[in-house]
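Sample intake sheet
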Amino acid sequence: MNKRIVGAGKELLALKLLEYNGYSIVVKNFRCRLGEVDIIAKKDGYLVFVEVKYRKTIKNGFPMEAVDYKKQNIISLVSDYYRIRYNLPDNAKIRYDVVAILDNTYKIVENAFEHI
């Protein structure tokens, strides 16, 4: 099966999972010239930038391991762009979460990393 189709299906699963857990979805697949963030949502007064990572097996590592320094940096840059584009204050409460999906199990990791 095409990886993009599988990825889109897992992102849809992540959207439903986040909504079930009290997240309010703002936008999905936010893109700019700096990169992409899978999901931007709000929860508990925070603007949350969410990365969705899926692995069928651990052969290539766990999903969280794929959110490495380089990926964290891209997400941080995109979040900066988003905040500037939409005139959010510098002291806006933001955080970075990851939805890690391994085969048919999932986990929402809140505050998965700090802004770089």
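Comment: The chain is about 30% helix and 40% strand. The chain has one domain: 3-113.
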